[in-house]
Amino acid sequence: MALNFSSDSSFLASPEQTPYQRLEPVVDGYLFKKSGCFGNVWSFCSFNKALEDNPCGELVNADLREFDEPSAVVADDILDRLPRDPFGMNIMKSTFPELSGLIQDFDWHFPSEYDVFGVGETHSKFDYNLFAGLYWGWNGAGSFPSGGNDKGNEMSVSDEFYDRLLFDGLFDGSLLSDGKVEMVLPTSHGDSCVSRGESEELKNSTKIDHDGEAGSPHDAMHVVLFLALDYLSVTDLLSVEQVCRSFRDIVRNIPHFWWSIRIDQSLCLRITDDTLVKLTNRAQGSLESLSLVNCTRITDSGLRCVLQSNPGLIKLSVPGCIRLTVEGILLHLRALKSSGKPGIKHLEIRGLPHVTDKHIEELKVLLNADKYLQQRDRRPRFYHRWFPYTDDDRVIDIELCPICQTLTTVYDCPAESCPQKQQASQSCRGCIACIERCINCGQCIKGFDYVETFCLEIRCVNCWNQLVSCPDKPIISQRTMYQFCLYG
Amino acid sequence: MSSSVEAITVLSSDGDEFKITVSAAKLSKPLNWMLEDVCFSDDCDEVPTIEVNSKTLVKVIEYCEKHAPRANSGASDSDAEELKKWDIEFMKMDVKDILFHILMAANYLHMEGLYDLACQTAADLMKGMTVSQIRKIFHIKNDFSSEEQEQLRRQHPGCSFD
Fold it and tell me: What cellular component terms from Gene Ontology apply here (chain A) (predicted)?
């Protein structure tokens, strides 16, 4: 991250310097040239200075969080203590595209009139955030250089700088081999490029180190996998955690992977209050989205614990968690409201017992639902049997069914030719009990042909035909109807 | 950038020369910058080196050439569909041998599409796998001591062990 930024920041250099007169062999990742990346030095100098005044440096060795056992030593994260996204740039899940975008934006903000301090100051805040949040999740592992550097392109970055930033040695010494920052990727060298650092912690915990020249494919593989971890779900992360030590340490100690937690099918019946709290603690207080689908063992006290330690939670989804109560959630929302914090913006509570109109009314007030109602809640929602919990941006997922007047999820009809829609007053909206729908496409079956399978699932003819013609599926017959029942 | 040039020559880290069309090169930000800043003409005798080995570079260029028309002009849905299929085929490669290099190269060349694709491919390989399967796929050695293993086992009663 930092590296990228620094390399990129060379583009902040004043255009008058017209860098690329000569084209040198590409050793220095981006620049395609040897000298002339003046911007790097400038911006890093000033950045460095700004950092020295930054109290966050002291947080480096603050309390270590552990998941379960004391051996999990890699990093306490200053991330928690920093604003997640000070400029509202929405870099929560940044991968490099977004980042590059940001960087380019920066570039534009500093045209020819190029003020060193201005740049530096902005960097300090910006960079810091990036450092803190995305150093691993993004290309942390991958883009750290090792070897093959362009010697002409030295950066004035002191070791101290890294000590401050790269706490506890996960990256200590790994970012740059010897005080240089470049964007050279070691693909051609075959090293795994992560850590040459001699930090003490690393020795015993994180085994990404290698001896520089003779990186084995084994190490290299780790790096790739770290990059890919960002794309995994909770269940998979938990599996990855058990693969080997370096994976365990990475998965446990990089809160970035845990900002969004979704527990469904595979874990929902097993997860308890206790494990949920431990799991969410990995986000180190910066959890943003929590989905608990049919987690029947989660109770109000467990959820409260999680909510209290993660005030920044934006989306809470607890469909089918029958041991939770709407009062418990209300209690938390009231507390948030009274403390004036920006709290949950999206709530999914279908399947919770004893939800009344009054609850919904209060929830709407607490969530500022009226504000969003006009724009978002008008978007149609379609029924699907297997993916009923799709993400949509509704503030609250349940509402009064226009037909039976119960509080439940109300679906729209996707079929444009739906006869119900033709009639002016009707819009074919209703809960699944009132309007029967195809389990696949969500189309209402009134006035359409449909097939009912052995286990009483309804499919419209189109979906049924698709299913039949799909070569991967068993050929349809009376018998396969029975099979559906089994598979379903 | 001079409009007269349609393809540029780049060197891989192994020293092999590769031709890449300008529109394809534009998918990579650094290459694009280079194109904007440097005039490629016949008398330009400098050949930029890309620090990616030949085997990987072939693949990367293949990807660029395939995606360039769409990136430049925008395409219909059917094209997008087709491209998706092509991507899937394209990514059917040996993890250890080449996927890793592709990912690194995508990162290095700032190609977001390829980067996402490669990451997603690697992630998909891990999805739904048991611990031992992941180890096998990625050739990772189990370096846990038996105590650590036991500890993990206790922590994650819900996860698949074998």
Answer: cytoplasm
Q: What is the mean pLDDT of residues A437-445?
A: 82
CB atoms within 10 A of CB B10: 21
Query: What residues of A are in contact with residue B108 (Cβ under 8 Å)?
Result: 29, 143, 183-185, 187
> For residue B160, is it within any domain?
no
ipTM above 0.85, yes or no: no
Specify the CATH number for the domain of residue B21.
3.30.710.10
Contact (CB, 8 A) for A473 and A467: yes
Interchain CB contact of A241 with B (< 8 Å) = yes
Contact B104 A224 (CB under 8 A): yes
Q: Is the pLDDT of residue A405 over 80?
A: yes
Separation of first and last alpha carbons in chain B: 58
pLDDT greater than 80 at residue A124: no
Number of domains into which chain B is organized: 1
Would the CB atoms of A233 and B155 count as touching at under 8 Å? no
Q: Do A23 and B46 touch (CB under 8 A)?
A: yes
* Residues of chain A neighbouring B43 (CB-CB closer than 8 A): none
In a domain, B146, yes or no: no
In B, which residues are within 8 Å of A243 by CB distance?
131, 134-135, 140, 142
Q: Which residues contact A331 (CB under 8 A, 6 or more apart)?
A: A304
Q: Report the chain A residue with the minimal C-alpha distance to residue B112.
A: A97
pLDDT of residue B17: 84
Q: Using the predicted structure, report yes or no on whether residue B2 has a pLDDT greater than 70.
A: no
For residue B149, tell me if it sits in a domain: no
Residue B105 is part of which domain span? 7-128
Task: Give a yes or no: residue B52 inside a domain.
Answer: yes
CA–CA distances in Å: residue B57 to residues A311, B114, B158: 46, 13, 43
